[in-house]
Amino acid sequence: QVQLVESGGGLVQAGGSLRLSCAASGRTTSRYHMAWFRQAPGKEREFVAAISWSDGRIYYAGSVKGRFTISRDNAKSTVYLRMNSLKPEDTAVYYCAADSSYFGTAYEYDYWGQGTQVTVSS
Questions:
Q1: Is there a contact between 42 and 103 (Cβ–Cβ < 8 Å)?
Q2: Exposed/middle/buried for residue 32 (C-beta within 10 Å: 0-12, 13-18, 19+)
Q3: Angle of CA points 107, 109, 89, to nearest 5°
């Protein structure tokens, strides 16, 4: 079992920055692929970014590429999402996800956090 706890969300003005953190505990989380998804009110959960544990591959959604950066610190069992140049359309609950085998952009990860709210005002 893996537990994921997100933090770092909040209210920010358009053009601002935030850094989300996801602390993982449980099994050997350094060997888990990690990802961020988000869900805006009335919309389906969508992929944001993912990072592989094994070969360093990183994926980004087109809407965040160039503005968001995913990274991980295996020693701290933590994955980060640095978000720059935030836009009102980035407003959503952001979820951290983990899986020992699946790595991709689909809603296939086994473990999920509770989410952290990000609100971007115009």
A1: no
A2: buried
A3: 45
- Identify the residue with better confidence: 55 or 24: 24
Give the pLDDT of residue 80. 98
Question: What are 58-82's pLDDT values in tens digits?
Answer: 999 999 999 999 999 989 999 999 9
Distance from C-alpha of 39 to C-alpha of 47, rounded to nearest angstrom: 9
Residue-wise pLDDT for 11-50, tens only, equals 999 999 999 999 999 877 788 999 999 999 999 999 999 9
- Contact predicate 6/93, CB 8 Å: no
Q: CA–CA separation, 78 vs 95, rounded Å?
A: 14
Amino acid at 91: T
CA distance 31 to 98: 10
* Per-residue tokens: 122: 């115009």
Pairing of strands 2-7, 18-26: antiparallel
Residue type, 110: D
